[in-house]
Fold this protein.
Amino acid sequence: MKIRLLLFFLLFSSVAFAQAIQGTVFDEQKKPLPGATVYLDGTTISTLTDSEGKYYLVVKEKINSSLVINYLGYNSVFIANPFENNNQNVYLSLKPEALKEVVIVKNGFSRKSMLNIFREYFLGRTVAGKSCKIENEDEINFVYDYDNNLLTASSSVPLLVNNEHLGYKIKFDLYEFSLKFYKKSIKSQDVTQSLFLGTALFSEVINDEKVKLRREKVYQGSSMHFFKNLTSNVWGKDDFLLFRKSFQADPSQFFKVEDNGDLKKVTILVNDLKDVLLAGKKPKFYSVYNVLYKKKEQSQIVFKTDTLYIDNFGNNLNVKDVEYSGVLSTKKMGDLLPMNYKSQAVPKTNLK
């Protein structure tokens, strides 16, 4: 009897956490769009609309991600709070026909050199990053702004990234990519700022034990791991240590963690803005920390806001407000795990 009750409780618990997201996708003429892709951004959770344009997603654990609806030749639609705005009618509008941009500049850089540095800063220079292949590189357009020493890249179709090292294929809609150089250059050593933004759909294509170990290795020491530990108050020489300048710091003096619904609210308690010299427009907040992972991997983290929101997986929802240098800055698309990735390590809590 006890066994039956326990089994019922486990089954009930798993069902209780499941949430459904549903709706219908139409074109501008209010005709259903079958075969549209619907997914939670940055995850492996996706589906296609049926013959009537309907979609239905069951999510076993809530994840704070936008719902993306796209269809070839149409503008994508994003739903910021899909669990709150359920069973919606979604209308997609046609994209204007776009011609590939051809920019000819006297004494300019070659496409090959621009593509090489794009791979470096989009895929990354790690083992995982170097193993990735972009299957449709011909779709990438480059523009170099010689007045501002700025390289930008764009694509009218999603980039198809094959990451054999981690067993994923990724469909990435590139919305922004830029590299700022301190002089007219296309060399990595001259880059002063880098940025890429977009939405990603992960598909798992390999899931053997070797790949699982690689994923876990990539997770350990990642920004996702750092924020998961920060919100769980897990610190130590075998995990992350926090430093201010050259001195080890007590995290409780610099971070306040509070529950905020299904998120963790992190307040950064110290503003370093008065102590730093910044070129250009100054932000309202600037707080700098050094972190050391397992006594060997060094990184610097800069917070440009005093408030962050972190979900249960360790995802920072304020992506633009945090900058990295050191080891964490080398981890790009090649080391990116789905937002719904769960570490296989035994969780620890309340350690100092």
Observations:
- Confidence is low (pLDDT under 50) at residues 1-16.
- The first helix runs from residue 2 to 17.
- The longest strand covers residues 168-181.
- Residues 186 and 285 are 31 Å apart (CA to CA).
